[in-house]
């Protein structure tokens, strides 16, 4: 059902489509530091809020994509002093 949720390579169709449009594709998925998933029994927003609530348990800062129906989490370096940073894809 879902594709392109984990590591992507420069030969993946999604990457080819973006670069064919002239867009630079510099995703955390390409760098093997990002993943998309769903949490059984929770909406994506509920899961995001649970991560924020328990962010003190995180060893490293993470980014979460907001306003999507799945959970995207990545380890892109966010030198902003926060354990959780939100971004729009």
Q: In terms of per-residue confidence, which ranges show pLDDT below 50 for 5 or more consecutive residues?
A: none
Radius of gyration: 14 Å
Q: Could you give the order of strands across the largest sheet?
A: 1-3-2-4
**Shape by Cα distribution:** globular
How much beta, percentage-wise? Answer: 15-25%
Count of extended strands: 4
Q: Give the SSE order as H and E letters.
A: HEHEEE
Tell me what the structure shows.
It is a single chain. By secondary structure, the protein is of the alpha+beta class. The chain has one domain. The protein is built from 2 helices and 4 strands, in the order αβαβββ. β2 and β3 form a beta hairpin. The longest helix has 10 residues. The model has no long low-confidence stretch (mean pLDDT 79).
């Amino acid at each position: 059902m879902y594709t392109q949720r984990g590591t992507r390579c420069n030969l993946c169709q999604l990457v080819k489509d973006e670069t064919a449009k002239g867009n630079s594709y510099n995703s955390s998925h390409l760098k093997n530091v990002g993943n998309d998933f769903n949490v059984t029994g929770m909406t994506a927003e509920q899961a995001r809020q649970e991560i924020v609530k328990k962010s003190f348990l995180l060893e490293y800062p993470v980014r979460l994509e907001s306003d999507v129906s799945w959970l995207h989490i990545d380890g892109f370096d966010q030198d902003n002093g926060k354990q959780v940073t939100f971004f729009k894809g």
